[in-house]
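Question thread 4412

I'm putting together a teaching handout and wanted feedback from people who do this every day. The idea is simple: show students a protein as raw sequence, then show them the structure tokens that encode its fold, then repeat with a second protein so they can compare. Below is the first pair exactly as I plan to print it.
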Amino acid sequence: MKYRTKLYISLVSVAFVSIILGLVIFSIESEKLLLRTLRSRSLTVAATAAVELDPTLIKKTNKAIPINDPSYVTVKKILLRILKANQRDDIYITDIYTLYPDPNNPKQLLYGVEAATDPDFPGSPYQDSDAPLIIKSLNDYFVDPTYVTDPWGTWMSAYAPIKDENGDYIATIGVDINSADIHMRLEELIKFALLGLSAALILSLLIAFFLSKKVTESLDHLSNCVKEIEKGNLNIHAKLETSDEFGALSEKIDEMCKGLLERERLKMSFARYVSKHILDKIIQTETPLKIEGERRKITVLFSDIRQFTQLAENLPPEEVVHLLNEYFEQMIEVIFSQNGTLDKFIGDGVMAEFGAPLDDDEQEEHAVVAAIRMQKALEKLCEKWAQENRPIIQMGIGIHTGEAVVGHIGSEKRIEYTAIGDTVNVAARLEQATKILKTPILLSETTYLQVKDKFPFKDLGSMALPGRKEQIKVYAIDLEKV
């Protein structure tokens, strides 16, 4: 079988398998995404409705009252408004209602107010399959992980607690989405996917045919050129008038021929001064990149934003990146102004060294000044962010002085300039300890002894740093006196 035929069959087979696999993955992931989206939106509707409802009115409806009772009518109008507002193309809420535990039987739920056209009578038992889960999670916001089935159909349901101003539980609000709508959307997605993937299969057949033809023609040409080079014909021209990889490869073959010709001329000239054995050895010798580090005294500074994970959860990713970029720009400028070296970013944290790669006799002072100015810079940033209605953040900084191995660390393929050693670990633990001691800047004793007369300090005594058994003396900068 010729290579062209094998290539064509391989391309078609890969395309076919990829399309089938893509269809399966698309169907599974689409269903997951749709369900996650609907669950998230239905839970949002439930949570929003729980906030809009007046706890006083809900308390009045938590009993068997007539459906023409003013309290019932008022709450139902609110639920109907929320229901109609959420009967959109992206989410179609079919029912919204309130539930409350039976005062005489806490394991039984009763209906309060329902927005449906034919509502359950107030005070009637709630008998759906998820009743035990609701009773177990009265104070929680949640979506039932399974579909709820009742005599009227199958539903995806979300629940949120209604609480009074004291935070005490009053009732639960439920939101239902008909599973028939969900499956209808899934079927539409799969139908469009099948049409698109069928068209892709036909197109892939045509592309595979022309591509295999072009590839084999280029391969035949390059193969013939290589055979000529093997015979010693270095004047061959392999140039292909294409802009793809084969064109680039043909250029490289021509460059190789030129290089071989130059190498032959060089060998003939240089062979007059050294033996062929030495010449070959020189030509084959390559000087690898030298990977090494040196032990030296440095001062390491670690900084980290407090409760950054919670902040990131409450902001869009783009806003988090913008905030971090603005924050890092200020911090880096301060570090550089004090002769510091930016080692790396660790998530929302910064690692910097003072006293490397160049020696610095005032490295401790420079590190402390940098920490103080970083906190001052953050204060100005927070003032600016407050005016822009953006989040206010706090930062902890740990500083320690000691010996470490500093230099290019890594492998032949990738290296970075960094510091390794216990000094780095202590500085990192000091930064973590700022959360425990609730102080913005912590120093170890080795750093403190070099700058004790230059800044206002607070002696915090000895403590065991997080993750370490040995205790060390720690000091805090009194920022109010700086």
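The second pair follows. I'd like the answer to focus on this one:
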Amino acid sequence: MKMSAARLSVEPGLDPYDAVRRDRAELASAAGGVVGLRLYGFAGDTLVLGRYHRRPHGHGVSLARRLSGGRVVPGGEGFVGLGLALPHRSALVGDDPRALGPEQVMNRCVRGLLDGLRRLGVEPFYPGRDLVTAGGRTLAVLGLEIAPDGTTLFEATLAVGRDLAALPALLERADPEGVTCARFWQPAEVVSVGALTRRTCSLEDVAGVVAQGYHDLFQVHFTAVSTPAVGAPEPGWLDVCAPRPDLDRSARLASMLGAIEVHARRDAGGAIAAVQLAGDFLASSTSVTRLEETLVGVMPTAGAVHARVVEAFAGRDEFLLGVEPRELTDTVLRALA
């Protein structure tokens, strides 16, 4: 597939509050047929939440929240963020938006990143799901969002000068109350580009080889652009999954990606009054919103809840990765028991 318009933005020292605005701007351009590739670094230590993580309220660490779901990761010095905005989920391979199923998208989108890492002297491996490894150790964490209009955002956090074992120290400062569920990586489980190559790689170095990877694999012809003006920051975005005191029941499920939490409340008649999903899962945001809304008023029986879960993720453009529908149903029921 030949792509006539593609933009490459390299953004060092990005304010975490600006990050979601940048991604929304790239998705708006993608809706007009323009592919956008962003590589960026955050200014200062940053805790990067997925779309569905509950916001902590500690101090001394900046917070960012991705448009995609997935795990909590560290950001700031030593880490490079990547965002690839596409007109539709199959844009890298063809013109038919449904050429790829939602579950196949990350497998294709990650290939430009893998090719770029090889150019830096790293031998990466994509074992599936949401991780990139090297020598069996985690090197990058991936995310995916498919918007209601079909535009698609693939995201990655790459350990370049530091590794993902930096996360526990960030969480101790940002989340002393343990509000945010997150998987802690041990030093033996993770690695960085610098540790593998024994050299320092700048943001510009990474951006150059990754852009070349997408160019060679998918014939994406990038034009370097300056950081676009996107208006005022969007600090309220951090609170989209804030803890809700009215939800007095909860349950947690250990999943392939980490953990999923269900917070809920029943009304006076025993029906579901409110539900909030939180945690490390990857899912289309429209599906999650639909599920939370359609569960309201339902009696918490296995048949009724499972029917809503299946319906929420049944569309051809919907996806739920890291947990099976039946497991999610059981977790909702446990929260409401």
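Top answer:
Good format. For the second protein you could add a caption like this: Residues 81 and 157 are 5 Å apart (CA to CA). The chain has two domains: 6-238, 244-336.
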